[in-house]
Specification:
This protein has seven helices and six strands, in the order E-E-E-H-E-H-H-E-H-H-E-H-H. The chain is of the alpha/beta class. The chain has a four-stranded mixed β-sheet, with helices on both faces. The protein has a two-stranded parallel ribbon with strand order 5-6. A hairpin with a 2-residue loop joins strand 2 and strand 3. The chain is globular, with a radius of gyration of 18 Å.
Length: about 190
């Protein structure tokens, strides 16, 4: 590979983007509502990248991502990631999250425990919120303590964790309803 490049590619959930450098994938952008917004986000994140045909190793990553978005079992374990500029703690979080099998989920606390940093739940959530390697580092498989699918990272476009987990066939998760939220704080009614 020579320098930074990017391309836009089709998936079952829309047109995604991928940027790369000499060391591997620099980032993945899930689709925004319109392709122009996806391109704009890639340009903001990787202003030095130029749109070009991806090298073979990036084509492998693209095919793996597209396969996963069709509900298939795309293997992304061998995809090299360009971790330059990423803090060491975040790199460790991404390594743990990459090991979560398709169709399974973990909580932020479980990831922190796997890092032997049980008090670092907030730091794990922050690292995943900055995940530039969507799908390759499957941050959508990491949920809040109640197993509620929350917002995906900043590079997630308009796609939700719930949708990605559904595509993968993960065990159903439930979101809090208004009833769930209000019940614990509602005052008991007096009996007449």
């Amino acid at each position: 590979m020579a320098g930074r490049g990017y391309t836009i590619f089709d998936t079952a959930i829309g047109r995604c983007g991928i940027a790369w450098g000499d060391a591997g994938v620099a980032g993945v952008q899930l689709p925004e509502l319109r392709e122009i917004e996806t391109r704009k986000r890639l340009f903001q994140l990787y202003p030095d990248a130029r749109e070009t045909r991806p090298p073979e190793e990036i084509e492998v990553a693209i095919e793996g991502i597209a396969t996963m978005m069709r509900g298939g079992d795309g293997d992304l374990t061998g995809v090299a990631l360009d971790m330059s500029g990423i803090p060491a703690f975040n790199q460790r979080v991404y390594q743990i999250v990459r090991s979560i099998p398709r169709g399974e989920t973990r909580t932020y606390d479980e990831v922190a425990s796997a890092l032997r940093a049980s008090g670092a739940v907030y730091s794990v959530a922050q690292a995943l919120g900055r995940n530039p390697f969507m799908i390759i580092v499957p941050c959508h498989r990491v949920l809040e303590a109640g197993h509620y699918p929350d917002r995906i990272s900043a590079n997630g476009g308009s796609i939700s964790k719930r949708r990605l987990l559904s595509i993968e066939g993960a065990q159903p998760t439930t979101s809090k309803t208004l009833f769930d939220v209000l019940l614990p704080v509602a005052r008991p009614r007096p009996h007449a």
